[in-house]
Automatic annotation (TrEMBL):
Keywords annotated in UniProt: FAD, Flavoprotein, Oxidoreductase
TM spans (from-to): none
PANTHER family named among the record's database cross-references: L-2-HYDROXYGLUTARATE DEHYDROGENASE, MITOCHONDRIAL (PTHR43104:SF4)
SUPFAM superfamilies: FAD/NAD(P)-binding domain
Reported cofactor(s): FAD
Pfam families: DAO
Domain FAD dependent oxidoreductase: 23-477
EC annotation from Swiss-Prot or TrEMBL: 1.1.99.2
Similarity-based family: Belongs to the L2HGDH family.
Protein name as it appears in the record: L-2-hydroxyglutarate dehydrogenase, mitochondrial
The reaction(s) this protein catalyses: (S)-2-hydroxyglutarate + A = 2-oxoglutarate + AH2
GO molecular function: (S)-2-hydroxyglutarate dehydrogenase activity
Length: 508
């Protein structure tokens, strides 16, 4: 892996004028980027939409390394985007899966407690569910104003006692004394869902998917409304020399690059010494290859969530049991915070950083350092086993084996000073905001950070469940943006459209 940093990219790829124009350029073809691309091509049929992905296939990072669960939407603050978009997204997801024949199963979920403190937490969680069900504003958003559905609960949940918990799942520990049951929680084949979104874009007349292409530089256009985006395709070492370079003017740029989204946004902040940083939270999954101790399992089983020290948020949903569409059992994810690798801004550069660069002693993130850490940590297997044994005492350690791991992009890092910096960088220059108006680093951040630049940051769980609702939300944000050129127009302009530029056909 080369030592790719923002300043190195800026030096390796000096500004070049755009060769073509596109109305919407979406960076990232994970499940959220694909959902946004699909929404844009169908909602704005007279505009062009391109989705650019650095990997050779879609959904290769966070989107393909998760639990494949359709979440109920109960864990997050009532006024958060996570709650609103998860509830709306769950409804859209089930509708989409039925319509497009995506394999899915409404399997139900048990959240269990084994202590007085955990029971108190779950009782408060149930009370919150009742509050969500009573919110008319939330209902209008989830149901899109169709109040004829007012008798339908937004969050169907019921309290179960010890007897019912063990009737539902006989393999549970006798210590399990209380629980909540969510009948609306399910699982899906996320790969089939991703493929369906991909096909929807590819089969449209105004959308294109571009794989194997890295965004290496972004600049504000000095002559047109929009953003000059420089890309590198088919390079042996992305971010270094080689490969094919293109420069395009994007009237609207949508940043949903997931684990790389902060680095994309930092192009706009450059050359400021402070840069946005994410917290990288790795979670490993372990397969279980025996019916021993789980022979009767029919539902997803979740322990009480792992709390942050402040008790205002949680790190993860605990090492839970999930069943995939083939009834295969896996346990995970655990929680392992990664240390972001930083290097000096001038390391490996030719000459010194000048007026358009960072100070020589500034530290920058070594981009994509986490790619070397995606192997499940087998040293954590024992901890996972002990965690699972607490609620499924019959499991056998010998049948646990590392399966895969994923990394959650979190806006809240483990460093308090960096969290303060992140909030300030996301204020958009509005320094008069009260503390209650500061960006919530535990929530999704979806905002038009600059005119024509829609920023999606910290899109972790429940991102898969929320993906179709996130796409609706983003489409509303850009509803009023200029529509750009007509796809049917072939008149001479300062920048021709992608579809009209012959030498860019291979790029698409």
């Amino acid at each position: 892996m080369c030592s790719r940093t923002l300043s190195r990219l800026r030096q390796n790829f000096p500004y070049i004028p755009p060769e073509a124009t596109v109305d919407h350029l979406v960076i990232g073809a994970g499940v959220v980027g694909l959902a946004i691309g699909r929404e844009l091509v169908h909602r704005f049929r007279s505009r062009s939409t391109f989705v650019v992905e650095r990997n050779p296939q879609p959904g290769q990072e966070t989107s393909s390394r998760n639990s494949e669960v359709i979440h109920a939407g109960i864990y997050y603050p009532q006024d958060s985007l996570k709650t609103a978009l998860c509830l709306r997204g769950r409804k859209l997801m089930y509708d989409y899966c039925r319509k497009h024949e995506i394999p899915h199963k409404k399997i139900g979920k048990l959240i269990i407690s084994r202590s007085r403190e955990e029971t108190e937490y779950l009782q408060k969680l149930y009370d919150k569910c009742q509050s969500l069900n009573g919110s008319q504003d939330l209902r209008r958003g989830v149901m899109f104003g169709r109040m004829e559905d007012r008798d339908e609960e937004l969050v169907p949940f019921r309290v179960i006692d010890q007897a019912e918990a063990h009737a539902l799942e006989p393999d549970l520990s006798p210590d399990v004394s209380f629980g909540l049951f969510s009948p609306e929680t399910g699982v899906l084949d996320s790969h089939a869902f991703i493929s369906s979104l991909e096909n929807s874009i590819e089969n449209s007349e105004n959308g294109e998917l571009v794989y194997g292409t890295h965004v290496v530089r972004i600049d504000r256009s000095s002559t047109d409304q929009g953003w000059v985006v420089q890309t590198q395709t088919n390079a042996d070492q992305p971010g270094e020399g080689g490969g094919e370079r293109n420069s395009v003017l994007a009237k609207c740029l949508v940043n949903c690059a997931g684990l790389n989204a902060h680095n994309i946004y930092n192009h706009l902040l450059y050359p400021r010494s402070r840069q946005l940083q994410l917290g990288f939270c790795k979670g490993s999954y372990y397969s279980y290859g025996s019916p021993k101790g789980v022979d009767s399992v029919k539902h997803l089983i979740y322990p009480t969530p792992i709390q942050q020290p402040t008790q205002k948020s949680f790190v993860g949903l605990g090492t839970h049991l999930t069943l995939d569409m083939n009834q295969k059992i896996k346990f995970g994810p655990d929680v392992e915070w990664l240390t972001t690798r930083m290097i000096k801004a001038n390391k490996g550069l030719v000459g010194k950083c000048g007026p358009d660069g960072l100070a020589a002693d500034a530290l920058e993130e070594l981009q994509d350092f986490w790619t070397e850490l995606l192997v499940p940590n087998d040293q954590r297997l024992e901890t996972t086993y002990q965690s699972v044994k607490g609620y499924l005492p019959g499991v056998d350690r010998d049948h646990f084996s590392p399966d895969y791991s994923g990394i959650r992009p979190k806006l809240r890092t483990m460093e308090g000073s960096q969290n303060e910096s992140n909030q300030e960088l996301l204020l958009n220059g509005n320094e008069r905001m009260s503390d209650s108006q500061l960006p919530n680093l535990d929530d999704f951040y979806i905002n038009q950070s600059e005119p024509g630049f829609v920023n999606l940051l910290g899109i972790e769980s429940p991102g898969l469940t929320s993906s179709l609702a996130i796409a609706e939300h983003v489409a509303k944000l850009i509803q009023q943006l200029p529509s750009g050129l007509s796809l049917k127009s072939r008149q001479s302009t300062a920048h021709e459209r992608f579809s009209a530029v012959g030498h860019l056909d291979d790029w698409a």
